[in-house]
What does this fold into?
Amino acid sequence: MKQKSFVYKCSSCGHEEPKWLGRCPDCGEWNTLIETVHSKSGSKQVKAKSETATLPLSAVDPMEGSRVGSGIGELDRVLGGGIMKRSSILVGGEPGIGKSTLLLQIAAAALTKGRILYISGEESAGQIRLRADRLGLSTEKNIMDRIEILCTGNLTEIETVLNNVKPVLVLVDSAQTLFSEEASMQARLVLGSVSQMKYCAFELISWAKEHDAALFLTAHVTKEGVISGPKTLEHMVDTVLYFEQNDKTSGLSGTADCRFLRAAKNRFGSIDEIGIFTMGEQGLSPVEDTGRMFLVRREGDLPPGVATAAVLEGTRTILVEIQALCIPAKSTISRVFSDKIDSSRVSRVSAVLEKYLGLNNKPGLRFSDQDLYVNAAGGIRITEVGVELALACALYSARMGLALPANLAIAGELSLTGEIRPVRRLSGRIKTAVSLGFGSFLGPAVEQAEANQNNQFENLKTGRKEWPGKLHAASDIKSAIKLVYAN
It folds into this structure.
C-alpha cells in the first residue's frame, strides 16, 4: 500500500511546509505548524486563493447580516436578537445541565424553512428520539421531518453529510467528541485533545461561513467553570454562552431548578443580557417575567440582614433579595464568604461602612473583626454596580440587628468616599418595584432630584390606584441609613 505523505500546515493562515518550522514564514506566528495529511487538491486551493478578489462595502447585500429567530425568546435575548447567519456559537456548561436539551429545542423551534442537522457524538439516534418524545416534539410531524440526525464524531463523515444535506443550521454535541484523521499524528491518538478540537472546530466554522449557515457547538466545563480544552476555541467562535445552574438548596419556589444562560463573548450583541430557564418535564421553559422569582415569600417583617436590590441584567430589571450575616471572626483575620457577589466588592462596601458611619464623631461600626457571609436568594450571580447600596444596607442591618422595611427596594452605587453615585435606568428599576407592590424606593439623590423635576414618577400607577409610596433620595451612605430608619 502507498504510504500517506504528510506536510506541516499552519493553523493560523493555512500555509504548508514540507518540514516543521518554529515560525510560519507566511504569517509570522510561532508554533502553529501542525502535521497533517498531504492533500492533492492543494494546488487548486492555491490557485483559488490567487484568484480571490476584493468587494466594495457598498456592494455588500445588507441581508447577509440578517438574523434567524431561534424560536426561544430568552435565547434570542442573549444572542442579541436571534441567530446571526454564518455565525458560530459555543455553549458551555456542566454535564447534565441541559446543553443537549437546549440544542434539540433550538432545532425544533428555529424559525427557518431550511433543513437542520443535529450531530451527536455522545448519544445514539434512539436516545435522541426518546428525548424528543419527552419534550413533546414527536407530535409535530413537520418539525420531526426537517431535523436530520447524524450520530458520529468523524469529521470526514460529517463534512460529507454537510455537503449532501446543505443545512441552514448545524448543531454539534459536543466539541470534545470530534476527531479527524487529518489532524496531527499525536492528536490522532487522543480523542478530545487540544489539537483535535481546534482542527475540527475550525473546519466546521469555515463550512458554516462558506455555506451561509449557523453553527452551534456544545462543550463541557472544568471544575474551575471554564470550557474544557484550549482557550483558542473561544477565540475561534463568534459567541460564547455559559449555561449555569442555581443553588438547589436556595428553597425559593420557582427557582428550585433554574438555569441561567450568559454570554461571555458576543460579536453581534451585548454580553450584559441573561436568559433564565426552568427545567421541567417538557424540557427548558423560558422565564420571560421574573417578577418575584428571586424574592423570598414571607409574611410580616423582614429579618435583620435582608435587603431588596433592584439590579439590571441587560435591559431587564430584576428584584433580588440580598442576605447578609455578620458573626465574630473565629481567628485574628476576618473572612468573607460570598460566591454570588464578588467577595472583593463585599470587602470594599464593608470598609466604606466602617469608615463613614461614625455618629457624633464617635468610631463607626467595625467589620474588620467580623466574618461576613453574603448570599443572593435564588442562586443568581450579580455583577452590576447598582447592588452596592442594597448590599451596604444589608450588612448594616445584619451588624446592628435592625431589620429593614419590608416594602423598600434599593439601588445605587457606593463610592470609596461614601457617596451614592447614579445608576443606569433608574426609572425602569422604580417602575418594576412599583409593579411588584413596593411602597418606597431608596436611590441616588442626583437622579431622583432630576426625576422629580421632570415629574417622571409623580403619576406612577399600579393598576387603577396611584402609588402611595415614597422616593428616598440620599447623597451618601450616612444619609441613606438615616432615611431608612427615620421612622
Remarks:
- The mean pLDDT is 83.
